[in-house]
Design goal:
Blueprint lengths: L2 E2 L11 E3 L7 H15 L4 E9 L10 E3 L6 E6 L2 E6 L13 E11 L2 E10 L4 E4 L4 E3 L5 H14 L3 H12 L6 H10 L4 H13 L5 H11 L3 H14 L2 H13 L3 H14 L2 H13 L3 H12 L3 H14 L3 H11 L5 H12 L1
Parallel strand pairs: 2-10, 3-10, 4-9, 5-9
Antiparallel strand pairs: 1-4, 3-7, 5-6, 7-8
Helix pairs in contact: 2-3, 3-5, 4-5, 4-6, 5-7, 6-7, 7-8, 7-9, 8-9, 8-10, 9-11, 10-11, 11-13, 12-13
Length: about 350
């Protein structure tokens, strides 16, 4: 027996209980789960879960939940942590890009009420077995109701660990307030790790105006670790705007290691714009470390792009350390043009 999108009847029993009463809003369903757990089960922990719409590919079904042992993934808990154990068959090519996902919350009971201490988002199209705890399935609340509920949990949580989990849930909601919420979390008075998580999701979630808010953060960021998180987020955007911001950081930040990170990702992008900027850095940047990073990034391009550039550096750059670095990376390439260069240099 499977549960598809939280609506299939007949699954009750064992540790899965349906509470998808359409006359109750989401908060009321959670309160009903709290009472049901207190009346039937011992212990501190229980689970609630529901389906919600996310950004992504349109499909006709969502996450599968079962009490059967014959499933591909198992959800269990350890204290206030949630774990998913995957044991998918090696030949399983199931497409997991679905627009319906299920979010599972781990509740810790405190008196008559419970506190959400962790959360995990389950991918659509994958089957899961719930192990050890009762799971109350709350149906399919709308995206507005879901976003309001999860953002309320975030604001009331007293643990950064819980907030980091909830940030990932909020980020994939197809909701107009997702990007502004992530921006506030990234720029507020939260701990560094939480702010880095919010920056990551601004770049990774596909949220509307993600670039706009990342750029706002980048313009005022001074902490090296936040700048590094912004660099990866701009790379994740995979856009010309993101590339231009990587170039700006590579040229402008005072943190050498952050500049090297930006240069690395520019090398992976390999656009005409980034190649030109990398060549400029080799020629004019004051830091030999930055020059070396730019040469490495250029060396990772395909041979037809990288070899002529590196040969030009060897022949014309006035910095002997820079020429030596270019020769090192040329030495890693199996190409007649490189052999000809070394023959001319060594036997002239």
């Amino acid at each position: 027996s499977n549960l598809v999108s939280g609506t299939t009847p007949g699954l009750e029993g064992k540790n899965i209980i349906l509470l998808d009463d359409a006359s109750l809003n989401l908060v009321q369903r959670v309160e009903k789960a709290e009472k049901a757990f207190a009346g039937k089960f011992k212990g501190e922990y229980f689970l609630t879960g529901y389906n919600f719409e996310t950004r992504g590919k349109n499909v006709t079904f969502g996450t599968f939940i079962s009490s059967s042992d014959m499933r591909t993934s198992k959800i269990s808990h350890d204290g206030d942590s949630l774990h998913i154990y995957h044991y998918m068959d090696a030949g399983d090519d199931r497409d997991t890009r679905y627009d319906k996902r299920m979010v599972i919350f781990l509740h810790k009971r405190s008196g008559k009420r419970s506190e959400v201490v962790n959360a995990v988002v389950l991918r659509g199209g994958t089957q899961y077995k719930v192990d050890g705890l009762p799971l109350y399935l709350l149906g399919n609340p709308g995206v507005d109701e879901s976003f309001k509920y999860v953002s309320g949990l975030f604001k009331s949580a007293d643990s950064e660990k819980s907030q980091k989990r909830l940030i990932s849930v909020l980020a994939i909601h197809d909701h107009k307030d997702a990007s502004p919420f992530l921006y506030q979390a990234a720029s507020g008075n939260h701990g560094l790790n939480l702010r880095k998580t919010a920056v990551f999701w601004l770049g990774a979630s596909g949220a509307d105006k993600g670039f706009y808010y990342l750029k706002k953060l980048s313009e005022k960021a001074t902490e090296k670790k936040i700048i590094k998180s912004l660099i990866f987020a701009f790379h994740n955007l995979d856009s010309k705007e993101g590339t231009r911001e990587l170039i700006r950081i590579a040229k402008g930040t005072s943190h050498i290691s952050a500049r090297k990170d930006a240069i690395f990702w520019l090398g992976q992008r390999a656009s005409k714009e980034s190649i030109g900027s990398l060549k400029d850095m080799v020629e004019s940047d004051e830091s030999t470390q930055v020059k070396s990073s730019a040469i490495f990034a250029l060396s990772q391009l395909d041979n037809d792009k990288s070899i002529p550039i590196l040969i030009d550096i060897v022949k014309n750059n006035r910095n002997p350390k820079v020429r030596k670095k270019a020769m090192f990376w040329l030495g890693q390439k199996d190409d007649k043009r490189v052999i000809d260069l070394f023959e001319n240099l060594l036997l002239k």
